[in-house]
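Input.
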Amino acid sequence: MITTGIIGGSGYTAGELLRILIHHPEAKIDFVFSTTNAGKPIASVHTDLIGECDLTFAAEISPNVDVVFLCLGHGNSTKFLDEHQFSKHTKIIDLSQDFRLNTHANHKGKQFVYGLPETQKAAITTGNYIANPGCFASGIQFALLPLAKAQLLHEAVHINAITGSTGAGVGLKPSSHFSWRNNNVSIYKAFTHQHLGEIKQNLTHFQPDWQEPMHFIPVRGNFPRGIFTTAYTACSLAENELYELYNTFYKDCPFVHVSESPIHLKQIVNTNKCVLHLEKHNDLVLISSAIDNLLKGASGQAVQNMNLMFGLPETCGLTLKANAF
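Output.
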C-alpha cells in the first residue's frame, strides 16, 4: 500500500483528496496535518466523511510516507518545504502554483515536473516532485493543446471561463459569501489571471513560435463546482478535420472525452473527466471545455499523478460518476 500524507487538511482540495484516498485500493492515509484543527476528528470539518473516516488531524508530520500532498495556499508550499524535511524516498505533489513555472520549478535540488498527465506522462512516471496544474489552466489547456501540437495557433485566442465558488477556497470573503454569490455573476482578474503564465508556457512548448496574446476573462459563477470554458481562434481546418485532430491527440487519455454534441457541467461534476466540444464558425473554431475544478482541476489530477508515479493504472481510484441530476 502507498502511504500518503496531506498537508493543509481543512480546505476543499484536501477534503476531495480524502474522499478519493479513503476508497483508493492501493493507498492508505497516514496523516492529515493541520495547524488550525490538530486533534479534531477529520469528519468534524469534512462532514461528508462521517461514518467513512475515523482519523483525527495531526499536529506533526510523518516524514517517511511514500507521498505527501501539499494543499496549501499559493506561496506557502515553498515556506513549508523550507521548514520541514521528508525522507529521500518521499514523493511530493504540490497543489499550489509555487513550482508550476519553469523559472520556479527547482527548490533546493528538488526538480518539480509540471503534472499534466495528458502531455507529461513519461516525466511524471519517473518524477519524484510534481507541480499539479491549476484548475483554469487545466481546462483551457485541454481546449488548446491539440491546436498547438499541430502548429495551428496563428492568431490571438479569446477565452471565457466561468468557475464555481469552491474555486475561491474555504476562507470567507465578500465575493464568496452566499448572499453575494447567489443569483450573481461577475468577472475578476480580466486579462491578468495568474494561470496565464503556465498556460502560455505549455502551449509554446509545443508551438514555440506562437507569440500572439491570450485574452482571458475569468467569471465567478453562482454554483459550487465546475469550470466551463469557451475558447475561440482562427483555424483553417474543417470541423471534421478538427474532430479527427482532437480524437487522435487524446486517444490514450482515459479522462478526456471529445463530444460531438454540446456539453454541460453536469457531465463532469464529481468526476476526473474533461469533456470537449468543437464547432466551426466561418474561419473560427470554438472549443468548449468542462472540468470539475476540485477534481480534474486539483485533487483528482493529483491522485492521477500519484498513480503514474507509483506504476498504477492512472484511473485507479478515480472511476467516479457524474452528478447528472
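The longest strand covers residues 227-234.
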